[in-house]
C-alpha cells in the first residue's frame, strides 16, 4: 500500500516548500461576462416595443453581449411595400444594442414566413429579383454593423425527406439559397453569413440535409460562415446535441445556438446541457436565448426562458451561468469577422495612369499584430473598375471595397501583401483605408 503524504500549508512553509495554490478564477456574475471568458457571446432576442420597459432594459443591459431583433429586421418589417424600405424598428434595436456595447445578429433576410403580402403574391423570376434586391438593400443598410446575418431561415422540410421545404422562394429555383449568400457577401463582406433552422438539434434527416448543403457550399466556394441551431426544445437536449454541432463544425463553419428556449420540468438541466455542449465545441461561438423573461416568450404559457415574469433569475439561469463559468476551449473563428483586431493595417496605392485608363496596385501592410483578414475601402470618383485580382471586390465606381481572398488574408505583423485593379477613366486621388477583419 502506498501512503500519500498530507502536509499542511504551515508545515510546508516551515520546510521552505513552494506551495502552488491555483485559486479558482473568480466566476463571472453575468451571462455575457461569463461567456466572454472563453471568447464567446451570450445573446437574446429583443423586441423594439419593449425598450421602454425598465425591468426588461436593465436585464438586457446587464446580462447580454449580443442582440437579435425578434421581428424588426424581417422582410415584412423592412420592406412593407416593394422597393420601400423601413428600418425604424431594426435601427432602434441595433442602436440600443450598439449604444450599450453589444453586437447584433441580423435576423432574417429570406424566410417563407413573414414575407410581406406583395412578395407572397410573386413567383418566378420576378420574385427572385425582388429577393436578391431585398438581400442587397438590407445588408447594405446595415453594412459593417452586423456580426452575423441569418441569410436564409428555415428552408428545409420537416420529416424524413431531408429536402427543401416548398415555398415560393424555393420555387424560384434550387440555387436561391446560394444566390442569397453571394448577394449578402457582396454587400457586406464583414458580416458572417449563416443558415438558420429548427428541429436540427440532433442528427436527423433534416439536419443531415442541411449538412449536405453546407458541405456542398464549402466545396464550391459559396460564402457560408456559420450554421444557426434555433434549439426550441422541450425538457431535454437531444443526447447527440454536441455531436451534431461538432459534425457541422468539422465542415469548417462556425455553429451558433440562435433561438434557445426550453420548456418543461427538466428545464434547468437541459439549459446546462446545451450550454456545456456549446462550450465543448470550439467552433460554437455563442448562444442566444429567444427572449428575456418568460412573459416575453413567443411560447405563451410555457415559461421557457431564464428569467421569470418579474425579472427574477430562475434555476435555468444559474445552470447556464455555471456552465459558462466552467469554461471550455476557446472558439475558432472564420476569417470573415467584424471583430476589431488590435494592431490594424494600412494600405497604400501606386498608380499607373494613362489617357483613358489606369492600373492601381495596392499594398496592404499589417500593423503590430498579424492579420487574419483585411478589407480595403476606397472612393473612385472619376473612374470605373473593369477587373481586379488577388481580392474580392464589391462595387466598380464610387465606393469600392476589396477583401482578401483565401491565400492572402493571413499577413504576419509588419509584413505586406498586394492586390490590384484596373479600370477606365481616372484613378487619381485614391486614398484607400484598411481595416483588419
Ligand atoms: O405587431 C403586431 C401587432 O400590432 C398586432 O396587434 C398583433 C396581432 O396578432 O400582431 C403583432 O405582430 C406579431 C409579432 O410577432 C410581434 O409580436 C405577429 O402577429 C406574430 O406572428 C409575430 O410572431 C413572431 C414569429 O416569429 C412570426 O413567425 C414572434 O414574435 C417571433 O418570436 C417568432 O420568431 C421566430 C423566428 O423568427 C424564427 N424561428 C422561429 C421563431 C419562433 O416562431
TrEMBL record:
It holds the Pfam family Glyco_hydro_10. It catalyses: Endohydrolysis of (1->4)-beta-D-xylosidic linkages in xylans. Residues 25-323 form the GH10 domain. InterPro entries: CBD2 (IPR001919), CBM2/CBM3_carb-bd_dom_sf (IPR008965), CBM2_carb-bd_dom_sf (IPR012291), GH (IPR017853), GH10 (IPR044846), GH10_AS (IPR031158), GH10_dom (IPR001000). Residues 338-437 form the CBM2 domain. It comes from the Bacteria. Residues 1-27 form the signal peptide. Keywords: Carbohydrate metabolism, Glycosidase, Hydrolase, Polysaccharide degradation, Signal, Xylan degradation. Residues 418-437 are annotated as: Disordered. The gene is xynA. Its EC number is 3.2.1.8. It comes from Lentzea cavernae. The active site is at 259 (nucleophile). This is Beta-xylanase. SUPFAM superfamilies: (Trans)glycosidases, Carbohydrate-binding domain. Belongs to the glycosyl hydrolase 10 (cellulase F) family.
